[in-house]
Amino acid sequence: MSIYSVALFFHILGAFGLMAALAVEDSALRGLRRATTGEQARTWLGAMRTLRVVAPASIALILVMGLYLTAAAWGWTGWIVSGLGALLLVGIIGGALTGRRMIRIGPAVGRAQGALSDDLRQMVLDPVLLVSARVRAGLVLGTLFLMSVKPSAAGSLVVLVIAVALGIAVSQVETRRSHELSHRGG
Ligand code: HEM
Asked: Alpha-carbon torsion 110, 111, 115, 116, what sign?
């Protein structure tokens, strides 16, 4: 057993944590978008709150261990620099697009009694929340690919661009589908 292999274990543990956080965010977001009363919305928001600790802690673990692995054995290869950029983007997008909206949604949902008002429904149905979640999922899966396949710098960038484009495309399909359902009253 070497320090390197233990650091790799914690690096991968951080990746598991980030995946788990994305999965919890996915079900909480789906629940929040379906919620029709303040009580229902609060239940899903509670699940989302745990992410304020789990997601940054996982990113920090991936980052610290990743930097150690890089310094110990690899140097700044194209796939590592791209992975680092992607991980930083995950943190920035999560904070700027989702975190800031949640700061407004949290107290409003906390006060809501009975049926959700139209304003509050608009806030929880904000398509930016979906774009943010799907693009971050794409970036994390793309980075997982980079870590496993270790492509060239150009190849790494192509992988990340495709991952972001897929994330945006999935969020657009979901937004369109939920518009259609709400127009049909479903
Ligand atoms: C979402 C972000 C990330 C995920 C999901 C992730 C995941 C992984 C996984 C699963 C491995 C094991 C691959 C293998 O052993 O073949 C790995 C290895 C590695 N990662 Fe990451 N990683 C991420 C970000 C980073 C960052 C930001 C850095 C550098 C600052 C980094 C540096 C490394 C290095 C140097 C290895 C060692 C590869 C080896 O020994 O084969 N990773 N990563």
From this structure: negative
**Under 8 Å between Cβ of 115 and 40:** no
The pLDDT value given to residue 93: 97
Question: Is there an atom of ligand 1 within 6 Å of 20 CB?
Answer: no
Least Cα distance to 57 among 32, 25, 20 occurs for: 20
Average pLDDT over every residue of 37-58: 93
Phi and psi dihedrals of 112, rounded to 5?
A: -65, 130
Residue 120 in contact with residue 108, Cβ under 8 Å?
yes
Q: How far is the CA of 157 from the centre of ligand 1 (A)?
A: 16
Q: Is the CB of 61 under 6 A from ligand 1?
A: no
Give the residue among 18, 121, 11 at the shortest CA–CA distance from 70.
11
Nearest to 137 by CA among 63, 27, 52: 27
Position 179 scores a pLDDT of: 77
User: Any idea where the domains of the chain sit in the sequence?
Assistant: 3-183
| Å from CA of 112 to ligand 1 middle | 43
Confidence of residue 178 (pLDDT cuts 50, 70, 90): confident
Atom of ligand 1 nearest to the CA of 139: 1
Cβ of 66 closer than 6 Å to ligand 1, yes or no, is yes
